[in-house]
C-alpha cells in the first residue's frame, strides 16, 4: 500500500521555515495589506499561536534571504486562519515585496514567536482594565489581543489608536463593528497627527484617566512607545504590567555571519564544564563546545528548546540565566529591565564561566 502523503508533516527548510500559501489578500488602506495564510492540517499544531505573537518571513531579494517579523492581527479564538498586516514603507525592501504578494503565492514562514502576550492564568484578570496603545501598523498585535479578550473575558478594554490621518486607520470597519457589539466594554480613542499632532505626555495622562492599575500593551513607532511608557511609569504604574513590542529590521545575512564569526572567536577561550538547563519542569546537564551559543549546545544535546529566527531579533529563545556568566553578542529584543532581571537570548549568548544554569519559560 502506498504512503499517504497528505498525512505527513511537511519538513522545515534548512532555515527552519515552512512553505505556506496565501489564501486571501485584504487591502486595508492605500499602503497596508493583510495576508491570510492557509495552514495545512499537519502544521496546525506547529502554527498554533497566542494573541500578540508574530510570524517571521524569509524573503529572497537580490540574492539574499532577508528575514522580517510581522505580528498577527488575527485572533486564535475568533479567526479561522492567521493573518498578518504589512504596511508599505518608503525604501522598505521586504515591506514592498510583501505588499506585492498575491493569492496563491507561497511564502517561507517560521512558526509563531514572541512574548507580547496577555497572561491569562491570573485569576483576578477580569477585574483589571486592559489598556492598549497602537500606533500605525503597530495596531496588529494589540488588535489580536483586543479581539481575543473580548471573546474570552468580561474585562473592560480601552484602545488608544494613533495614526497619521483618517485614511491611515487600519481595521477601521472591523473596529466599528466591535464597538457596536460591545458598547459597554470597548472604548476606542482615535488620535490623528493631522488633527491633534503627535501624542504627548499630557495627552497620555488625560487618556489614562479612569484606567489606573491596568495591564498596558504598547506597539507602534519608537517615539510613540517611548512617550506612552515614560508617562505610565511617571504615573506610578507597575513596570511589570507595561508590555512594549519593539521590532527592528535585522542586518543582512553577510553582516550576521561576520558578527557571528567575531563573537565565536571571542568565546573560544572560555570553557563551560557544565550547562544546566531547566526546560518544561525538567533539569538537564549538558556539555558545551567552545564557541557555541547556548542554543547550539542545547540542540546538540537533543533538547527541544524554544527558538525561531536564531538571529537575535524574534525573542523566541528568551531564557533566564540563574547561575554563572554569559556574553550576549547581539540584542534587539530585550529591554534594560529584562537584562537586569537575568534574561538573555540563547541564540546569541555564550557561556563565559565553568558553570551556567538556564531556565526557559514554562
Work out the helix count: 9
Alpha-beta classification: alpha/beta
Q: Average pLDDT value?
A: 88
pLDDT < 50 runs, ≥5 residues: 1-7
Instruction: Tell me the Rg in angstroms.
Output: 21 Å
- What level of helicity do the residues show? 10-25%
Quick one: overall form? globular
Side by side, the strands of the main sheet go 4-3-6-1-2-5
Question: Beta-sheet strand percentage?
Answer: 25-35%
Give the N-terminus to C-terminus distance in angstroms: 42 Å
Number of strands: 18
Please summarize the sheet with the most strands: 6 strands, antiparallel
Q: What is the string of SSEs from the N terminus onward?
A: EEEEEHEEHEHEHHEHEHEEHEEHEEE
Keywords:
9 helices, 6-stranded antiparallel sheet, 18 strands, single chain, alpha/beta, disordered N terminus, 362 residues, 5-stranded parallel sheet
